[in-house]
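Revision sheet: C-alpha cells.
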Amino acid sequence: MSPDLLFKAVALLGGLGFLLGLVLTFAATRFRLKRDEKEEAILSVLPNANCGACGFPGCAGFAESVARGEADPFGCPVSDAETREKIAQILGIESKPKEREIAVLICQGGEKECGRRFNLWGEKDCRSVALLHSGDKECPYACLGYGHCVKVCPFSAIRMGENSLPVIDEEKCTGCGICVRECPKKVLRLLPKSKLVYLACVSPEKGKEVRDKCSVGCFACGICVKVCPYSALKMENNLPVMDFSLCTDCGICVHKCPTKSYRDRAKARPYAMISTACNGCGECVKVCQFKAIEGKPQERHRVIIEKCIGCGECFKVCPIKAITMVGALGYAYK
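Predicted:
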C-alpha cells in the first residue's frame, strides 16, 4: 500500500471518528436526563459504598427510588444516624432513630471444637462445599471455615482466624448484611451493637448427637432457661431463643452454660463491692447464683471477687444501696 493511500485512510477514519464523537457529545448534552434535585442531594449524603445491601444496584439507584417515594428513605443499612438525619431534612420528614447493627458469628465450631468428616483437595469455597453432603464438618450446621464471607464483605471487615473461623472487625463492620445473606450455613446474623450476650450455636440436634460432633455445641439441656432471672430465654426446636427486649446482658447464662455455647462481647465485666452501710439483710445472697457473697446476718457482707461475674443482680435488690459495681463493660457506644 502506498504511503499516500495509507495517509488518506488514516485521515478518513480519524475524521469519521471525530465527527461521530461530536454527534455523541451533542446527543449526550441535548438529551441528557436531568436528575431530580432531591435525588442529587440524597446521593451526595449517602456513603457511596455501592454495596447493594439496600436491594438496589448502587447508591444512585437507591437515591432515585427514595426521591420518587418508592423506597424506604432509611433503607440504607450502612448509613449512620447523621446520614439518616440529613436524608430526613432533604425530604422534609422526621428521622427514625435506628441502633447500629453489626454482624456476629453464631457458631464456635472451629477446627479444634468440630472436626471434619472427609478431606477435600483443590480450590474450596463455602458454597460449593456446602452442596457436598451438607459440608465436610462433623456438625452439618457448623461454619465451614473457607472464608466466603471474607470475599463478599465490601468493607474488608472480616478475616479468617487461626481456628478457621471468621473474625469480624466491629469498627469496620457497617451492618450491611451481605455476609449474612451470602453464608450458605446461616451462621452469621446481625445484632444491635449494644447487645453483648448471645447464643453461638445453630444446631437443632440435642444430647449425644451434639456432644459427639462439637465440644461447644448447645445440646438443649435447658439450664440457661431455668437460671435466667428475666425469663428472656425459651426453648424452641432444641435451641434457647433469646428475647432481646427482656435480656439485660447480665451474663448469667454465659457462665452457667456447661458447654460454653454463649458468647459475651463485653471486653471486661464490673464486680460488686459492698460498702460499710451494709446492714446484713441478706437480699444480695438470695439473688447471687454464684455464691459470690458471704456474711453473717445483721453484719456487713463481702463479695468474693473471684466468683463474681458482674451480673449486677445484687446491686438491683439491695434495699439501702450499699452495693456498687466497680469497673466497666469496656464498651463505649456512640
